[in-house]
Every structure is written in C-alpha cells, then in structure tokens.
TrEMBL record:
This is Uncharacterized protein. Residues 16-69 form the Transcription regulator PadR N-terminal domain. Pfam families: PaaX_M, PadR. The lineage of its organism: Bacteria, Candidatus Doudnaibacteriota. Residues 82-149 form the Transcriptional repressor PaaX-like central Cas2-like domain. InterPro entries: PaaX-like_central, Tscrpt_reg_PadR_N, WH-like_DNA-bd_sf, WH_DNA-bd_sf.
Length: 153
C-alpha cells in the first residue's frame, strides 16, 4: 500500500469516527514541506478528498466520489521457477501516450522493473491480467513478451 492510499484510508476511517480531521495553519505548513503533501494534493486533484476551512482550522473530508473509490489491488503474480525472467517490450505510438503511461504504471505497480522507458522485467510469470489490460487499452499489437535469462557482468 503506497503513501497516498494510506493517507486516504486514514482520512476515510477517521471520518467514520469524527466528521472531520482538523489541522492548524502551522500544521498545514509542515505538511506542505513533507512528502505527505504530494499525496494529499493528488487526492484533492482526483476529487477524493476536499479541504475545508472552519474558523482558523483546516480539515480534510472524503468526498462522495472518494467514498465510492477503490484503489486498484496489487495482482499476485506467481514467481517463475525456471530461472528465467519475463521481459515486456512495448513501442506504443505517441498518439496513444495515455495508454502507454497507464500500461507502464500498471507494470511498475506490479513489481516490473524499468530497464528502459519501454522495456520492463520481472522474475514473475506473465499473467492474464496484463493481457486483459493490453486488450482494454487496445495496445496489444505494440507489445512483445519474452522469457529471458538475465546475466550480470
């Protein structure tokens, strides 16, 4: 679970107990300087939480859209036992840049390491979930999947 998801879940759970999470302006300045700010900012931009002001305090509340939102679950891939690695090479056209970004982030989120911008590697087996995503994004013709032995020199 990444930091953004942890913060969102905290705000959501706290909202079940208390109607709001309040912070002072000084506390907000500390948050702005921390790594949490990026996560809170992303959640706000996605419309999952909103900042509200009451007197001299700020608070974050989960929006209606946030109540319905479910973070994507990490897919459990089976580890390869044949000593090979799965290599995915993709050359998705610039006109499909959104699909390319979604595909790359999905692979990174599921333990694929970036060798180059369009080459990913993992010691896990290639899953049907990746095939389903390729079909959904309509990028299958631009992707090659290899099984390869990795040598370190």
């Amino acid at each position: 679970m990444n930091i953004t998801e942890r913060i969102f879940n905290f705000i959501k759970k706290a909202g079940e107990v208390a109607s709001e999470i309040t912070i002072t302006y000084q506390e907000e300045r500390k948050i702005l300087r921390s790594s949490y700010y990026g996560s809170i900012n992303r959640l706000e931009k996605q419309g999952l939480i909103e900042k509200r002001k009451k007197q001299k305090r700020l608070y974050y509340a989960v929006t209606e859209q946030g109540r319905k939102y479910r973070f994507p679950k990490k897919i459990e891939h089976e580890r390869r036992t044949d000593g090979l690695s799965t290599v995915i090479i993709f050359d998705i056209p610039e006109t499909m840049s959104r699909q390319r970004t979604v595909f790359r982030r999905f692979l990174q989120h599921n333990d694929y390491a970036l060798l180059q911008k369009s080459v990913m590697i993992s010691p896990k087996k290639f899953s049907k979930d990746i095939v389903e995503l390729m079909e959904e994004l309509k990028v299958r013709p631009y992707i090659t999947v290899l099984s390869s032995k990795v040598y370190y020199f």
